[in-house]
Amino acid sequence: MSKIVIVGGVAGGASAAARLRRLDEAAEIVLFERGEYISFANCGLPYFIGGEITDRDALTVQTPEGFRARFRIDVRVEQEVTAIDRQARTVTVIHRKAGETCGKTYVESYDTLILSPGAAPIVPDIPGVVTAASRVFTLRNIPDTYRIKDFIDRTRPGSAVVAGGGNIGVEMAENLRRAGLAVTLVERADQVIAPLDYDMACDVHAHLRRQGVTLRLSTAVQRVEETPAGLRVTLSGDTNRSEEMLTDMLILSVGVRPENSLAVAAGLAVGERGGIGVDSHMRTSDEHIYAVGDAVEVVDFVTGQAAMIPLAGPANKQGRIAADHICGRPSSYSGTQGSAILRVFDLTVATTGINEKTACRLGLAYDKTFTYSNSHAGYFPGAVPMCIKTVFEKGSGKILGAQIVGGDGVDKRCDVLATAIRAGMTAADLARLELCYAPPYSSAKDPVNMAGFVLENLLTGTVKHIHWHDVAALPRDGSVTLLDVRTTMEYDNGHIDGFVNIPLDDLRGRLAELDPHKTVYVNCRSGQRSYLAARILSQRGFDVYNLDGGYRLYHAVTGDADVPAATRRSGDGSPAQTPAGQQQVPPCQTQRGRDARVAEDARDTKTIRLDACGLQCPGPIMKLAAALKDANAGDVVEIRTTDPAFAGDIDGYCRRTGHAFLGCTNEKGVAIARIRKTTPRASSTVGSTSTPAAGGNGKNFILFSGDLDKAIATFIMANAAAAMGRNVSIFFTFWGLNVLRKPKQPNVKKDLISRMFGWMMPRGSTKLGLSSMNMGGLGARLIRAIMKKKHVDSLEDLIAAARKNGVELIACTMSMDVMGLKSEELIDGIKPGGAAAMLAHAEESDMSLFI
Ligand code: FAD
Q1: Which of 40, 42, 144, 174 to mutate for ligand 1's pocket (most ligand atoms within 8 Å of CB)?
Q2: Which run of H or E residues covers position 810?
């Protein structure tokens, strides 16, 4: 009878133990687990913290007693293996309780040893992390989970910083939002979820922001300090300037390192990244010792290179393979391809195989495509779009990797693509896959087939393509034709600089407008209509390139901005206002004026409900426009759509047409937007949306001055204009910014010059002087007294009224930078903006005043 000792009782260890018993009833199996629990659900831990999993017992898949009873395995919890004697084939074991040594050390012999010790969260060497330990957390096991959950239940924190935007960090950000905290997610790289490429991560960034997570990309936690007010966290960005914020707790999820100390001490071979070296049967450099799971170095299935890929699926399979081999079966592990999936609020993100970053780093001859498809037939309710990025080998078309971001059905498509990669399939194979179809589940051409068709078209030269990152370099000097074949309305709602619009359906009739000697670069919303245009043109002799992923992808990537979420200021400690998972997208502030204007219309009105789910752009907008045309002034149109970009587009549409955007909620990938029809200048016909925004009746003030009298005059005029239902914005630049300063200096880190500037300038509206007759502040006090006597609102009241009336207050970011002012020093509700924001408002106004 052979004796097998296993170190580690969770994914890899427990699965090896169970398989061993199934194969060998006679074997003596001893399983050592350092912690109190075995076979627990690591992957479910974040959801217990967020409150989705409520039953503590649900986290343990198997108890030590249950495991013993079912498999007759000698399970020894709270017993840590501290050494391996390879010659004697023994391990040294210490009995620990809650991490403390509480029993004697003893030696256990083995014939075969399996190591499955996993990987530990990295605790970065950040000053203060250890001393502030009561508010700093990592998440690996059940005790960690209870510690976080108990802290939240006991102290009711208002805010959290999550350091690290990997899968666990993003899951924690979501679950802390669910638990009602304001969350700032800090990530050193310029994107979250590293297995995604940046272009695919942009939609995730936008979604996180929409859910109220403040994203701080290209930023690292530099220092942590416990203060009476909470944790002071110092962040450093790529500008080398540091910034401080107060928070109630910090979650460190910056990665894991393999638990290799036992293996290293025993002299087993270890790879460059610290993973225990194993052969295809999971055997280490010692034939009597196997190793599995997060602690081992694997072969990347696609590249053949050594890799560390800590995932539960591989750990479980490796445990089974090791058990097989110990019992004389020839099972072998053929590598890990990193198939992973994760929920990010309403989005699903899945990856398999290698990404473009890896293909590029390895110098592979690869290409990529982006395809947008619906989860199921568009005409059947509830279809949601997904974007698939496929990385493939040039020439052969062999699939190297895929990334999918979407909602329903992402898991299924990524699994099909994972299988295709395992089978060494090519583009042609994907195109020919026969997959299940009925309208509620898929389309006759499944998204995976669609990806295959597009790849095939490229490989056969049926179409040539360019990518979003090639667009900036396209000549704008007339030497080439830049063509946008979307509808006029879509084009008017936003287009790429330099592209001219000929809608696809007009193209054949307007060919004469195109010079056949010039190369044509064509785009549409997703790349599908522009592909049709490319075929029309290339068959007439044009040299044509299609923009892969279209305007949708281009806009998502070029519009990705690392700005705090509109709904939440970072580190202010205020609790979340809206339940996570059903986040209110705040209506554009410029809308508030219109809301006031339509309040009158709102009496005796009705709500018209539209279902535009499954419709591709411009379908939802066209449906909306038609409904608004028939609606009465004041009626509210509530439209449900599954186009993820709709929530972003609808605000622009309303701005152009004059209707009031009342906001947008999101429920499981379905955006529900509410728009109120307005009386004046609102025209809801489709064609009307192409009316240029210039010449609107908004009022645009530029407050350059920091004088009390000029500020009062500005706010009186702004409030009057807002009361007339005009969209009003005030752009504060240079000395005008002083009007917006908080009277009390918040705790922000500034250099000496900025601090000096701060001391010299008036701190907020109450400290402003008059432009003349100030008399050392006496004039200002006099004017305030007179205003009070004559019942004229004070400047502070005027500012409050302006904010209430929906006047948009924009702080010039350039001036703030020059004057060393931080956004935390300004009163709440101020939008950062540049000259472009000011000019956009000027174009939508019939009056701009520089004061
Ligand atoms: P583990 O499951 O970590 O087990 C190792 C065990 O060994 C530990 O319990 C440890 O206490 C014990 N041990 C270590 N050293 C000793 C010793 N000397 N003596 C005795 N015992 C010892 N993967 C996915 O694929 N999908 C997911 O959604 C997912 N979500 C995750 C969420 C969280 C919060 C975490 C922490 C991980 C997640 N993972 C996920 C990763 C997945 O859990 C791991 O890849 C998997 O558990 C690795 O299995 P393992 O057996 O190698 O290590």
Answers
A1: 42
A2: strand 808-812
H-helix or E-strand spanning residue 708: helix 708-723
Residue that the structure tokens 């590249």 belong to: 303
The count of other CB atoms within 10 Å of the CB of residue 789 is 8
C-alpha span between 256 and 271 (Å, rounded): 16
Q: Exposed, middle or buried, 315 (CB in 10 Å: 0-12/13-18/19+)?
A: buried
- CA–CA distance, 466 with 444 (Å, rounded to integer): 28
- Terminal-to-terminal C-alpha distance of the chain: 92
Ligand 1 atom with least separation from CA of 145: 34
pLDDT tens digits for range 506-522: 999 999 999 999 999 99
pLDDT tens digit sequence for 761-794: 999 999 999 998 988 889 898 888 888 877 778 8
> Cα separations (Å) of 78 from 59, 101, 518, 601?
18, 9, 74, 69
Determine how many CB atoms are found less than 10 A away from the CB of residue 672: 16
In eight-state DSSP terms, residue 111 is S
Transcribe 513-571 into DSSP letters. Answer: GS-TTS-EEEE-SSSHHHHHHHHHHHTTT--EEEETTHHHHHHHHHT------TT--TT
The predicted-structure confidence for 302-354, as pLDDT tens digits, reads as follows 999 999 999 999 999 999 999 999 999 999 999 999 999 999 999 999 999 99
Model pLDDT, residue 493: 82
Is cis: bond before 618, omega within 30 of 0? yes
Beta bridge partners of 246: 232
Name the closest-CA residue to atom 53, ligand 1.
Answer: 118
Q: Which residues line ligand 1 (CB under 6 A)?
A: 7-8, 10-13, 32-35, 42-43, 45-46, 80-81, 116-118, 139-141, 168, 259, 262, 293-295, 310-313, 315
- Taking the C-alpha atoms of residue 714 and residue 721, their distance in angstroms, rounded to an integer, is 11
Say which residue, 767 or 618, is predicted with more confidence: 767
Sign of the dihedral through C-alpha 578, 579, 583, 584: negative
CB-based contact 106:93 (threshold 8 Å): yes
3-state secondary structure of 52: coil
What's the CA-to-centroid distance between 57 and ligand 1, angstroms? 18
Select from 594, 645, 658 the least CA-distant residue to 617: 645
471 in Cβ contact with 551 (< 8 Å): no
Q: What's the gap in Å between 116 CA and the centre of ligand 1?
A: 9
Q: Is 43 a catalytic residue?
A: yes
Task: Find the angle CA(243)-CA(246)-CA(248) to the nearest 5 degrees.
Answer: 145
Helix-helix angle 64-71:11-23, to 10 degrees: 20
